[in-house]
Amino acid sequence: IDGTAGVGKSSVGKAVALKYGISFLSTGQMYRCLGWKVLKSGINMDDESAVIKAAKDIVWGFERQSDSSLKVLVDGQYLGDKLQLEEVGRAASKVSAIGPARAVIMQKQIDLGREGNIVMEGRDIGTAICPDAPVKIYLIANAEARAQRRVKQLQEQGEKADYDEILASIISRDERDSNRSCSPLKPAPDAVIIDTSALSLDEVIEKVMEEVGKVW
User: Fold this and answer.
1) Strand, helix or coil for residue 64
2) What are the residues whose beta carbons fall under 8 Å from the beta carbon of 159, sequence distance 6 or more?
3) In the predicted model, what is the mean pLDDT of residues 95-121?
4) CB-side neighbour CA atoms (13 Å) of 216
5) pLDDT interval class at 159 (50, 70, 90)
6) Collapsing DSSP states into helix, strand and coil, what is residue 58?
7) What is the DSSP string of 138-174?
8) E-strand stretches of the chain
9) What are the strands of the beta sheet with 60-64, ordered from one edge?
10) Beta strands in 50-165, from DSSP E residues, in sequence order
11) In whole angstroms, what is the distance from residue 45 CA to residue 140 CA?
12) Whole-structure pTM value
């Protein structure tokens, strides 16, 4: 499952994985982990060699949870809600645009995909990580709808949310993700494109399950 930021990929992917009793991985977590490590270490994100070294030095761990999702550990540490911070998201988008650093993380994702029995979501799963996947979904939604969803999510978590700031961040992230030289965000040629702007989560899950049901 691929698509733009805030389009509901994780919620949909987790529901599908749970239905079939297999693992689910939100690959964006891994880039957020790198973004967090870079920020935590005080590394200048423009220092590509330092970012690449940070990516290579990460010791990854994965633990399957009752809801099918894989908990990602960095150097033995589970970061939890720290990964959802807006500054971590911005850092993740920036460091993931550094080709060699992205390649390090991509290889780990490719290895996980080859093991099978997994639903993966991200920006380049169908095009680069699992090009032979039997089902490829590409979710889209307009930036305004995604910003509204993010505001609601943050408010439900008891956090302050500035709609205009979040909207600007989403638009900026889309621009970086779509125009980076390494694995730019785009649908695979054989991906099924679903616009979620006016759909409920259950409706999106139903559409995805229809596609899965055609081959599984």
Assistant:
1) strand
2) none
3) 94
4) 17
5) confident
6) coil
7) EEE--HHHHHHHHHHHHHHTT----HHHHHHHHHHHH
8) 2-3, 23-26, 60-64, 70-74, 77-78, 118-121, 137-140, 192-195
9) 60-64, 70-74, 77-78
10) 60-64, 70-74, 77-78, 118-121, 137-140
11) 28
12) 0.82
